[in-house]
Amino acid sequence: MTAAGRTVLDEDTGRAATRLADLAHDSESLTADGHAGCPGSAVYVATGGWQGPQAVEVCIDPAGTGHRDRWTATVLPGGAAGEEPSEDEREAASAERRATIENNKAMAAANETRREWIKGLLQRKTAPKAALRFAVETMAADPRRCPGGCPGNPTAPRTPPPPTSASTLPASGGPPGTSPRSR
């Protein structure tokens, strides 16, 4: 590959670069042929996959060459041709980062509160009054949640009960909890 004029990277450096499959330029996916003239074009040999060694096309400077992330359609950090972001863009990014930090703190606090509430709920000696109704309504709404099918739902798949042996039957000959008089 080096003889063909390609930049060849070692595997660790190549994995740190951005794969062509993850990039787009002018709303078009990048291909190896279309990317060959790019100054950031490079290749490395991936040896760790189940398919054996494979050449992987990458770009070592996607932001500097104006490529975009294919999946989010946003410009990669640094803008096109490595230009610095404007003051307004920096302020907007800073405000967005501050909001993200605040939201993360709020989520951490809410998660701790939720954990404490669930811990208290599970440590109770009795279930809440509406727990049985909630469980029945939940199982009835989604029969897949009922192992072996839900009673009263003829369309749900049912698994037969495990066979009982004669040694587990009471002396009356019927299922446990029954007597000859109740039959």
TrEMBL record:
UniProt superkingdom: Bacteria
Biased composition (Basic and acidic residues): 91-100
Stretch list, region Disordered: 77-108, 139-183
Protein name: Uncharacterized protein
Source organism per UniProt: Blastococcus brunescens
